Amino acid sequence: MGQKVYMDHAATTYTKPEVLEEMLPYFTEVFGNPSSVHGFGRQARRALDHARERTAKALNAQPSEIFFTAGGSESDNWAIKGTALANRDKGNHIITTSIEHHAVFDTCKFLEKNGFEVTYLPVDEYGMVSVEKLKEAITDRTILISVMFANNEIGTIQPIEEIGRIARERKIYFHTDAVQAVGNIPIDVEKLNIDMLSLSAHKFYGPKGVGALYIKRGVKILPYIHGGAQERNRRAGTENLPGIVGLGKAIELAVENMAAHNERLTAMRDRLIREILSRVEYSRLNGHPTKRLPGNVNFSFEFIEGEALLLSLDLKGIAGSSGSACTSGSLDPSHVLLAIGLPHEIAHGSLRLTLGDGNTDDDVDYVIEVLPEIVARLREMSPLFAQNKGGSEFV
Q: Where would a tag sit more exposed on the chain, N or C end, judged by fewer CB atoms within 10 A?
């Protein structure tokens, strides 16, 4: 096929060799159940505790505030359902945004069907939440604010510190889905006034199927899974020890290497944005131009359809996406792109390219060479392009 370029790191990263190496003994050698009292179990428990300490250190949290889960979606569900149901006596109002990941969005929709009221804050053309609109939305029945740290599709980073301060002043719990942010943005849960934070190992070069929820000490939240005393009686079930060990190693590496990682990715990202926008007419960048994740690029190209673009790129060995991996089977346009004001037809022609540690300047050169050719060829087949060469107000 020729050159292969993976630019879908927001969907998942690979597991780093040093992470896998640390995990391997916990499949075959240190295989005890961490809840067992014998030596095998105690050895496993030490590994579990070490991973908890590593994760806590990465967030400036206490080890007792870290609870391991099966991933970001579970962590989001637990944070929102658990606090909503535990604090129902105080109120039934939740505030979130119109661009959340579906793990938050659909959980809030579920709660709406069960007696809760949810305000979905709008965003501006860059996908940014207004702190003033957040303040206006708060009522005496508001018990939870959930705003994602950075958007998985367009990469926009939200004013988390300001939101956290407002929530703390009003004595409202604040949860953030930081699945895309961990490993890309320095996070200090104390400084940012975060009460709960969701993360997932496979977004920062750890294994799939394991994540964590930070729950600040004192937060009133219901257990998520019943049936055992694991995770301090809050999430029953034998722990995924190899995965948890991998998460601990991966998050430690991510924090250690963050400055160099961000500098390299930001340089490649900005060159990719600059070159594609200059070479492809009727194109636009989605998301904030500067307050965005270091590896995130999201374009809209008028007069073409996103699926055809992805398949054409795939034939050239380039892996990208048209939005969240969790909704890749849907034919509906991205709710995030609609929320920032794009019409359906332009939202359908979107492309997300997310850079990671495996990418090189040669990869960027290849995409810059191939992508404009593909867009031009698809437009030649599009009757819309022939009819509307004047472009639109959105470009």
A: N
Predicted TM-score (pTM) of this structure? 0.95
Strand pairing report for 211-215 and 283-285? unpaired
Catalytic residue from among 131, 137, 225, 326: 326
Residue linked to tokens 């997932």: 200
Residue 54 DSSP SS3: helix
Handedness of CA 378, 380, 386, 392 (dihedral sign): positive
Token pair in block for residue 157: 């980073």
How many whole angstroms separate alpha carbon 51 and alpha carbon 247? 7
| Torsion over CA: 316, 320, 325, 331 (sign) | negative
Please give the sequence-ordered ranges of beta strands (E in DSSP) within 64-210, or none if there are none.
66-69, 93-97, 117-121, 142-146, 173-177, 196-200
pLDDT tens-digit map of 242-280: 999 999 999 999 999 999 999 999 999 999 999 999 999
Q: What is d(CA 307, CA 324) in angstroms, rounded to the nearest whole number?
A: 13
